[in-house]
Amino acid sequence: MITMLLGPPGSGKGTTANVICKNHKLFSLSTGDLLRERVKQTDGFGKHIANLMSTGELISDDIINQLVKEIVESDKIKTEYNGILFDGYPRTVQQAQFLKKLLADNNQKVNYVLLFNVDDDFIVKRIVARRIDRKTGNIYNLITNPPPENADLDLYQRPDDKEETILHRLDVYKKQTTPLIDFYKESDIIYEVDASQPVEKMIEIAEKILER
Length: 212
Ligand code: ADP
Known about the structure:
By secondary structure, this protein is an alpha/beta fold. The protein has a single domain, classed as Rossmann fold, CATH 3.40.50.300. The chain has 10 helices and 8 strands. It has helices spanning 13-24, 31-39, 44-55, 61-72, 75-80, 93-105, 120-128, 163-177, 179-185, 199-210, and strands at residues 2-6, 27-30, 84-87, 112-117, 130-133, 139-141, 155-156, 190-194. The strands form 2 sheets. The chain has a 5-stranded parallel beta sheet, sandwiched between helices. It has a 3-stranded antiparallel beta sheet with strand order 6-5-7. Strand 5 (130-133) and strand 6 (139-141) form a beta hairpin. Helix 2 (31-39) packs across helix 3 and helix 7 packs across helix 8. 29% of the residues are buried. Bound molecules: adenosine-5'-diphosphate. Adenosine-5'-diphosphate (ADP) binds at residues 9-10, 31-32, 35, 52-53, 56-59, 64, 88-89, 91, 95, 160, 169.
């Protein structure tokens, strides 16, 4: 099963992805997470990526497509998982076209696209309160989903989760990623989720869609 989460930054894609992947034994393919991992190597390439990410600009299609190709074609994914859940990829029409061909070459296709809809104001408020636990990767929100008290956590805030950068990321999403909505509408696999709801509710709705 190939599922894709499409939606603006801070719409709850990552949190939902974690749960859906566990429930369905899907491989969680978050290009943002892959890039954050790569940035830990502080060579020239790592620094180049870190710079773009901190401003909210996209990394070039060729780099991202290559990263994704290696994973989609790896034996581990084919044998150990029931499919892939894409989070934050594709983000441009060029990436979507590349993915379509890559999946077709591997006898697969996208089965579900969950489109997370939410207002900009809501997103900004949600993202500035987002914190991530370094140890587990769990995503918390200081207001809506606070971390458990007394837990042994190592929380951090993503460098691109500052208000100025968020506004630019929203702009990039509108210009470069929303054209994908029409791209997937054509094949009738797109399902809308109201992403202003609490995360548990979004997960419940997502699960119902995946039963169809
Ligand atoms: P969010 O959905 O909250 O913006 P991500 O973790 O998906 O967060 O992405 C963080 C940053 O990583 C993006 O702003 C961009 O710089 C880079 N990035 C992630 N995925 C892609 C992609 N598919 N194409 C280009 N750049 C990407």
